[in-house]
Amino acid sequence: MAVLTAQLLSNDSGQIVLAYSDYAVQTSLGVFVFLLIVGFTLLYVSVRLLSGMLNMPQTLRRRKQTRRQGKSEYYLTEGFLALTTGDWKAAEKLFKQGAKFSRLPVINYIAAAKAAHNQGAADRRDHYLRLASADTADLSSAVGITQAELQLQQQQNEQAYTTLKQVEQDSAGNNHTRLMMLEASTASGDWQHMLDLLGEFDNKGKPVQAILAKQKQASAEVLAAAARSGEVNDLNSAWARIPARLKQEPEVLQAYVSGRLRYPDTSECETLLRDSVRTTLDPQLVRLYGLVQATKPEKQLALVEKLMHTHPGNSALFLCAGRLYKRAQLWGRARHCLEESMKLQPSPEICYELATMFQGQGDNVNAGKYFREGLALATAQTTAAQQTR
Question: What does pTM read for this prediction?
Fold first, then answer.
């Protein structure tokens, strides 16, 4: 382009005159074009330099942010690698250093708190959690849940429950938070708190399996504690507070019936057990069914005989029938069923039923035999249980 322009100008060396008032400037066309190009270039460079100077603070900030982000990612990555490998001290240091470069330092503080916790440094752990809580109010629930998890790991159950209760008040609770509250209450044996939580889970629809397991455990423990109080009204009140769907769970029903057997008039329990025994044939419920007394014993016995016909070889059913025959003083049938149950699954409980039956009939030889056998079985079970601990 420059060569072409020079050739054109050399063929036509025209004149340029610029006049203003009494002044006039005359130059050749070539010089004017040259000056015009130089002026445009200087103007362009000046504008670019001025723009760069005006945008320099923003550019520097952007570069600084890029460097900070790079450092933040480095410290966070290295910190989690150290945390994964169990180098708690290095992890804590890396998370702490990276917090000042991070756009979300709450993550660094929470991770540093876990690293300090694993070192047994509760003071530093709580310090990091306070920094995390102060850093952002939007993530206060995450900080609270983390603090509760660490408190549960150190068996600080009451503190964990208090922390989770605060999380529940500050933000909309969820099943995870409530499940942790159940865990804290379970560890501290505060079954009343667990009962309160049961109602909240019921209002949220069908619970997940983990929560359902906790509900069953809590209900059984509450009923067992009420049974130990020595007041049947306490047990009945506790049973009334249990959600209806949990009353059908074998563990919960077993706890209630076992408690009611301490008191007279168990006819209500026979009604409760009848449907469950018929549908689930749960061994523990079947065992208890032989201990409760029905208002119409003949119907109770008829149900067990029917189940024995449809489920032959069931040890729990033979034990249940043996008890009912024994109560009806049908000694031959009682002995047959109890001995069959003993063959299928020997236990001290069956030995006791046989021994007391023979003792009542004056047969001290067989009574002594089964008392000794029951003692031997109980001793063996106790020894096995101690060895598995």
Answer: 0.60
DSSP string, 119-171: TT-HHHHHHHHHHHHHH-STTHHHHHHHHHHHHHHTT-HHHHHHHHHHHHHHS
State the CB neighbour count (10 A cutoff) for residue 153. Answer: 12
As a whole number of angstroms, the distance between CA 309 and CA 302 comes to: 11
Spatial contact of 30 and 12, defined as CB atoms under 8 Å apart? no
Residue 329 DSSP class: T
DSSP structural state of residue 388: T
Question: Tens digits of per-residue pLDDT, 293-342?
Answer: 999 999 999 999 999 999 999 999 999 999 999 999 999 999 999 999 99
Nearest to 285 by CA among 264, 305, 265, 256: 256
Handedness of CA 132, 138, 140, 141 (dihedral sign): negative
- Residues 126 and 93: beta-carbon distance below 8 Å: no
Long-range CB pairs of 257-266 (<8 Å, 24+ gap) are: 257/285, 257/288, 257/292, 258/224, 258/227, 258/288, 259/223, 259/224, 259/226, 259/227, 259/235, 260/227, 260/232, 260/235, 260/292, 261/288, 261/291, 261/292, 262/227, 263/232, 263/235, 266/291, 266/292, 266/293
pLDDT in tens, 210-243: 667 877 888 888 899 899 888 899 999 989 988 8
Q: Which two tokens stand for residue 337?
A: 């069923």
Helix (H) or strand (E) segment spanning residue 55: none
How is the chain split into domains, by residue range? 1-54, 189-262
